[in-house]
Protein backbone atom coordinates (compact mmCIF):
# COMPACT_ATOMS: atom_id res chain seq x y z
CA UNK A 1 0.00 0.00 0.00
CA UNK A 2 1.22 3.50 -0.86
CA UNK A 3 1.87 6.01 1.88
CA UNK A 4 0.52 9.52 1.38
CA UNK A 5 4.01 11.04 1.45
CA UNK A 6 5.12 8.71 -1.36
CA UNK A 7 2.07 9.62 -3.41
CA UNK A 8 2.67 13.33 -2.91
CA UNK A 9 6.24 12.82 -4.12
CA UNK A 10 4.80 11.21 -7.25
CA UNK A 11 2.51 14.22 -7.63
CA UNK A 12 5.40 16.61 -7.30
CA UNK A 13 7.23 14.87 -10.12
CA UNK A 14 4.15 15.21 -12.35
CA UNK A 15 4.01 19.02 -12.23
CA UNK A 16 4.95 20.23 -15.67
CA UNK A 17 4.32 23.89 -14.96
CA UNK A 18 4.17 25.32 -11.44
CA UNK A 19 5.31 28.60 -8.75
CA UNK A 20 6.04 32.27 -7.73
CA UNK A 21 7.69 35.28 -9.27
CA UNK A 22 8.87 38.85 -9.10
CA UNK A 23 5.55 39.96 -10.58
CA UNK A 24 3.49 37.50 -8.55
CA UNK A 25 2.58 37.96 -4.94
CA UNK A 26 1.08 35.21 -2.80
CA UNK A 27 0.28 35.09 0.89
CA UNK A 28 1.13 31.61 2.07
CA UNK A 29 -0.41 30.67 5.43
CA UNK A 30 2.07 31.24 8.27
CA UNK A 31 2.43 27.56 9.15
CA UNK A 32 3.31 26.49 5.58
CA UNK A 33 6.93 25.89 4.61
CA UNK A 34 7.94 27.78 1.45
CA UNK A 35 10.80 26.72 -0.81
CA UNK A 36 12.18 28.39 -3.91
CA UNK A 37 12.48 25.83 -6.67
CA UNK A 38 14.79 25.67 -9.71
CA UNK A 39 13.65 28.10 -12.37
CA UNK A 40 11.83 26.32 -15.20
CA UNK A 41 12.83 26.96 -18.81
CA UNK A 42 10.26 28.92 -20.75
CA UNK A 43 8.66 26.88 -23.54
CA UNK A 44 7.96 30.20 -25.30
CA UNK A 45 11.46 31.69 -25.59
CA UNK A 46 14.81 29.85 -25.65
CA UNK A 47 17.11 30.92 -22.84
CA UNK A 48 14.37 32.56 -20.78
CA UNK A 49 13.66 31.24 -17.31
CA UNK A 50 10.47 31.38 -15.31
CA UNK A 51 10.04 31.34 -11.56
CA UNK A 52 8.75 28.62 -9.28
CA UNK A 53 7.91 28.33 -5.61
CA UNK A 54 6.62 25.36 -3.63
CA UNK A 55 4.81 25.53 -0.31
CA UNK A 56 3.69 22.70 1.91
CA UNK A 57 1.75 22.23 5.09
CA UNK A 58 2.58 19.36 7.41
CA UNK A 59 0.15 17.36 9.50
CA UNK A 60 0.98 16.91 13.21
CA UNK A 61 2.52 13.50 12.41
CA UNK A 62 4.98 15.13 9.97
CA UNK A 63 3.34 13.88 6.76
CA UNK A 64 2.39 16.42 4.13
CA UNK A 65 -1.21 17.66 4.31
CA UNK A 66 -0.95 19.70 1.10
CA UNK A 67 1.69 20.70 -1.43
CA UNK A 68 1.22 23.75 -3.65
CA UNK A 69 3.33 25.11 -6.46
CA UNK A 70 3.07 28.45 -8.20
CA UNK A 71 4.90 29.00 -11.49
CA UNK A 72 5.31 32.09 -13.62
CA UNK A 73 6.56 31.88 -17.20
CA UNK A 74 7.21 35.14 -19.07
CA UNK A 75 5.47 35.48 -22.44
CA UNK A 76 6.92 37.10 -25.53
CA UNK A 77 4.77 39.84 -27.06
CA UNK A 78 1.75 38.48 -28.95
CA UNK A 79 2.35 34.89 -27.77
CA UNK A 80 -0.82 32.82 -28.06
CA UNK A 81 -1.57 30.50 -25.13
CA UNK A 82 -4.70 28.37 -25.05
CA UNK A 83 -5.19 27.63 -21.34
CA UNK A 84 -7.42 24.60 -21.90
CA UNK A 85 -4.79 23.04 -24.17
CA UNK A 86 -2.04 23.59 -21.59
CA UNK A 87 -4.31 22.25 -18.82
CA UNK A 88 -5.02 19.18 -20.94
CA UNK A 89 -1.29 18.52 -21.33
CA UNK A 90 -0.76 18.96 -17.57
CA UNK A 91 -3.71 16.67 -16.80
CA UNK A 92 -2.36 14.00 -19.12
CA UNK A 93 1.03 14.18 -17.39
CA UNK A 94 -0.62 13.84 -13.98
CA UNK A 95 -2.73 10.89 -15.14
CA UNK A 96 0.32 9.17 -16.65
CA UNK A 97 2.30 9.64 -13.44
CA UNK A 98 -0.54 8.21 -11.36
CA UNK A 99 -1.01 5.28 -13.77
CA UNK A 100 2.69 4.44 -13.55
CA UNK A 101 2.19 4.25 -9.77
CA UNK A 102 -0.76 1.90 -10.12
CA UNK A 103 -3.45 4.52 -9.46
CA UNK A 104 -6.62 5.21 -11.42
CA UNK A 105 -7.48 8.84 -12.09
CA UNK A 106 -10.72 10.67 -12.74
CA UNK A 107 -10.54 14.31 -13.80
CA UNK A 108 -13.36 16.83 -13.99
CA UNK A 109 -13.76 18.90 -17.16
CA UNK A 110 -12.04 22.32 -17.12
CA UNK A 111 -14.05 25.08 -15.44
CA UNK A 112 -13.74 28.80 -14.88
CA UNK A 113 -11.88 29.86 -11.74
CA UNK A 114 -9.90 32.77 -10.31
CA UNK A 115 -6.25 33.11 -9.45
CA UNK A 116 -6.37 36.26 -7.38
CA UNK A 117 -6.94 39.15 -9.76
CA UNK A 118 -6.91 37.03 -12.97
CA UNK A 119 -9.53 34.83 -14.60
CA UNK A 120 -8.30 31.24 -14.70
CA UNK A 121 -9.20 27.73 -15.81
CA UNK A 122 -9.12 24.79 -13.40
CA UNK A 123 -9.10 20.99 -13.56
CA UNK A 124 -9.37 18.77 -10.49
CA UNK A 125 -8.26 15.13 -10.60
CA UNK A 126 -8.82 12.42 -8.02
CA UNK A 127 -6.48 9.42 -7.92
CA UNK A 128 -7.84 6.19 -6.46
CA UNK A 129 -6.19 3.06 -5.20
CA UNK A 130 -8.18 -0.15 -4.87
CA UNK A 131 -11.35 1.85 -5.62
CA UNK A 132 -10.84 4.36 -2.79
CA UNK A 133 -9.84 8.01 -3.30
CA UNK A 134 -6.20 8.45 -2.30
CA UNK A 135 -5.17 11.87 -3.62
CA UNK A 136 -6.65 14.99 -5.12
CA UNK A 137 -4.83 17.44 -7.35
CA UNK A 138 -6.13 20.75 -8.69
CA UNK A 139 -4.41 22.43 -11.64
CA UNK A 140 -5.11 26.10 -12.35
CA UNK A 141 -3.85 28.26 -15.22
CA UNK A 142 -4.12 31.99 -15.84
CA UNK A 143 -2.61 34.42 -18.28
CA UNK A 144 -1.73 38.08 -18.09
CA UNK A 145 -0.32 40.33 -20.82
CA UNK A 146 3.24 39.38 -19.86
CA UNK A 147 3.14 35.90 -18.31
CA UNK A 148 1.33 32.62 -17.91
CA UNK A 149 0.82 31.27 -14.39
CA UNK A 150 0.04 27.85 -13.01
CA UNK A 151 -0.99 26.96 -9.51
CA UNK A 152 -1.32 23.38 -8.32
CA UNK A 153 -2.55 21.91 -5.08
CA UNK A 154 -2.02 18.23 -4.24
CA UNK A 155 -3.20 16.52 -1.09
CA UNK A 156 -4.28 13.18 0.33
CA UNK A 157 -8.02 12.72 -0.18
CA UNK A 158 -8.63 12.76 3.57
CA UNK A 159 -7.15 16.29 3.79
CA UNK A 160 -9.30 17.96 1.11
CA UNK A 161 -11.98 19.29 3.46
CA UNK A 162 -9.48 20.04 6.24
CA UNK A 163 -7.33 22.38 4.12
CA UNK A 164 -10.06 23.71 1.78
CA UNK A 165 -10.26 27.14 3.43
CA UNK A 166 -6.48 27.63 3.36
CA UNK A 167 -6.35 26.60 -0.31
CA UNK A 168 -9.07 29.15 -1.13
CA UNK A 169 -7.20 31.84 0.84
CA UNK A 170 -3.97 31.18 -1.05
CA UNK A 171 -5.78 31.25 -4.38
CA UNK A 172 -7.58 34.52 -3.50
CA UNK A 173 -4.38 36.15 -2.18
CA UNK A 174 -2.58 35.99 -5.53
CA UNK A 175 -1.67 39.26 -7.18
CA UNK A 176 -0.42 38.49 -10.67
CA UNK A 177 0.88 40.92 -13.29
UniProtKB/TrEMBL annotation:
<feature type="signal peptide">
    <location>
        <begin position="1"/>
        <end position="21"/>
    </location>
</feature>
<dbReference type="Pfam" id="PF16304">
    <property type="entry name" value="DUF4946"/>
</dbReference>
<dbReference type="InterPro" id="IPR032543">
    <property type="entry name" value="DUF4946"/>
</dbReference>
<protein>
    <recommendedName>
        <fullName>DUF4946 domain-containing protein</fullName>
    </recommendedName>
</protein>
<keyword id="KW-0732">Signal</keyword>
<feature type="compositionally biased region" description="Basic and acidic residues">
    <location>
        <begin position="48"/>
        <end position="59"/>
    </location>
</feature>
<feature type="region of interest" description="Disordered">
    <location>
        <begin position="33"/>
        <end position="59"/>
    </location>
</feature>
